[in-house]
Amino acid sequence: MLLTIFLTMKIRILLLAFAISFNLSYTQSNTEIAYVYLNRAEDSFEKNDIDNSLSAFKKSLKYNDSLNDSRVGRLGMLLHYGLGNFHIAKVYSKEYFDFIDDKTTEDYLDMLDLYVSIQEGIDQFNEELRIKTEKI
């Protein structure tokens, strides 16, 4: 009787260990999922489908909440600049410039130009806000 209980327990432990190891070996990491969404967001952006691009971009951030790639900063910059969210675009621009290594590429120069446009948008927003506040 004791031997039967021992064997039953041993079988259960082996089955549990097998199930856990099987589950762990086929689980995708959040980072991998985040990059799938990032790729979708970039593809949608290139097709000028801003709504789907922004949706996929937000899902990418949901799975990888820390920005660790210049691609994330670049797309965040482009999306939020296009939507007129200059302050948010500036945050993403910092992330882009922090992670970019080669400062001689055409892409870098384009993003630098966009950064200047973002800053101009922020300056214009601040000036309009100042004028509105003075009228009150």
Structure description:
The chain is mostly helical and 136 residues long. It contains six helices and no strands. Helix 2 (30-46) packs antiparallel against helix 3 (50-63), helix 2 crosses helix 4 (70-82) and helix 4 crosses helix 6. The chain is elongated, with a radius of gyration of 24 Å. Mean pLDDT is 85; it is low at 22-26.
Calculate the mean pLDDT score and round it.
Answer: 85
Number of strands: 0
Give the ordered list of helices and strands: HHHHHH
Q: Which secondary-structure class do the elements indicate?
A: mainly alpha
Terminal residue distance: 89 Å
Quick one: biggest sheet?
none
Helix content: over 70%
**Segments where pLDDT lies below 50 for 5+ residues?**
22-26
Whole-angstrom Rg: 24 Å
Q: Specify the overall morphology.
A: elongated
Q: State the helix count.
A: 6
What proportion of the residues form beta strands (DSSP E)?
Answer: under 5%
List keywords for this structure.
single chain; 136 residues; mainly alpha; 6 helices
Write the layout of secondary structure elements.
Layout (H helix, E strand, L loop, with lengths): L1 H24 L4 H17 L3 H14 L6 H13 L3 H14 L6 H30 L1
Helix pairs in contact: 2-3, 2-4, 3-4, 4-5, 4-6, 5-6
